[in-house]
């Protein structure tokens, strides 16, 4: 099936309140252009320099999301254009995003990444760290970043109940945060293998790659 057909089929299953991020990491510009021509405007990448290269040559009305782990020394390469950074998991990183955003007179929207999986290989904050970050003086001083929600990845497992539990746990944290911060409106959870469960558990944004573009051969 073509990229356009895959997109159409997936979009048909998404409720209206769920935003689709087409994860185009490792895929060539021609594949992104094909999705663009089929109407897709939001794309997710996990390497900052790869995303910057694509931003330079592809249509300027594409909204680029950084979904991967962010290295602080590379934030400067995306500060001019990135629409949403999903994987923010420290105050140090937020400070750097704030500093780089200021240079372009922008306020960059960010999601805080929560650790919900059992695996300890996945990045993210626990509830305690989330609370500490949001209540710190250093955080309240940042004027060029805005926390608009949370992101999380479930354990890579066939156990549907476990995935469901982990997403439900993230939704609970998200609901509590929403009560406190009015800008919070995005819950980014769900990938090709688990987005249906994620939506059942309250996701508002899914990050789908291989089901649209086909399997990846690299990372
Ligand atoms: C690669 C990636 C995705 C998309 O994964 P698929 O299984 O190809 O849909 C989603 N989120 C993050 C953080 C990723 O790195």
Explain what the structure shows:
The protein is of the alpha/beta class and 219 residues long. The chain is 40% helix and 18% strand. The protein contains 9 helices and 8 strands. The chain has helices at 3-13, 29-37, 48-57, 91-103, 127-135, 137-140, 160-180, 195-200, 210-213; strands at 19-23, 42-45, 63-66, 84-88, 108-114, 145-152, 186-188, 205-208. Strands 7-6-5-4-3-2-1-8 form an 8-stranded parallel sheet. Helix 2 links the parallel strand 1 and strand 2. The longest helix has 21 residues, at 160-180. The chain is globular and about 50 Å long. It starts with a helix and ends in a 6-residue tail after the last helix. The relative contact order is 0.16. The structure holds pyridoxal-5'-phosphate (PLP). Pyridoxal-5'-phosphate (PLP) binds at residues 23, 25, 46, 67-68, 153, 191-193, 207-211.
Termini, distance in Å? Answer: 23 Å
Unreliable stretches: none
Radius of gyration from the alpha-carbon trace, in angstroms: 17 Å
What portion of residues is helical?
25-40%
Briefly note the structural class of the backbone: alpha/beta
Strand order of the largest sheet: 7-6-5-4-3-2-1-8
- Topology order in helix (H) and strand (E) letters: HEHEHEEHEHHEHEHEH
Bin the strand percentage. 15-25%
| Mean of residue pLDDT values | 96
Q: Helix segment count?
A: 9
| Small molecules held by this entry | pyridoxal-5'-phosphate
Tell me briefly what this model is:
The chain is an alpha/beta fold and 219 residues long. The chain has helices spanning 3-13, 29-37, 48-57, 91-103, 127-135, 137-140, 160-180, 195-200, 210-213, and strands spanning 19-23, 42-45, 63-66, 84-88, 108-114, 145-152, 186-188, 205-208.
